[in-house]
Write a structure and sequence with these properties.
By secondary structure, this protein is α+β, with helices and mostly antiparallel strands. It has 2 domains: 2-44; 48-130, Pantoate--beta-alanine Ligase, Chain: A,domain 2 (2-Layer Sandwich). The chain contains 4 helices and 4 strands. It has a 4-stranded antiparallel β-sheet with strand order 1-2-3-4. Strand 1 (74-80) and strand 2 (83-94) form a beta hairpin. The radius of gyration is 31 Å and the shape is rod-shaped.
């Protein structure tokens, strides 16, 4: 008797209907699509190591500019941690005040990672202030 009962239960189950498969696919798509988008955004964003490297390169360029008194525009490419970086220095003079901007890009995607800015008095302005 038990064998007859178990054969009826197994024989009555034929699988999933198309409607059940469509509902399951829709639920899976609603969950999967945002997860793929989120994962893509995480992979595209820059890692902390990249930001630290870019900041150090920018700081080094800014300190070199101020220490060596080189007041000219300059673009420089360098390799650090197997990644090529572009360091761009722009110097503008306005009424004895130098505005120095250093931008650091990753060469692969040309997207700005770090921008540093400072202002610096020229020598004649420093002399005027030293008499105070």
């Amino acid at each position: 008797m038990k064998k007859v009962l178990s054969k009826r239960l197994i024989g009555s189950q034929m699988g999933y209907s198309i409607l059940e498969l469509l509902v399951a696919s829709a639920i899976f798509g609603v969950v999967l699509v945002p997860m793929v988008v989120l994962l893509g955004n995480v992979l595209v964003k820059y890692s902390a190591a990249d930001l630290i490297t870019a900041t150090n390169l920018g700081r080094e360029a800014m300190e070199s500019t101020l220490f060596n008194h080189v007041w000219s525009n300059r673009d420089n490419e360098t390799e650090q941690n197997n990644i090529f970086w572009k360091v761009e220095r722009r110097v503008e003079e306005e009424q004895e005040l130098l505005k120095i901007t250093v931008n650091v890009y990753r060469v692969r995607d040309e997207k700005l990672l770090v921008s540093l800015y400072t202002e610096h008095f020229t020598e004649s302005k420093k002399e005027d202030l030293s008499g105070l």
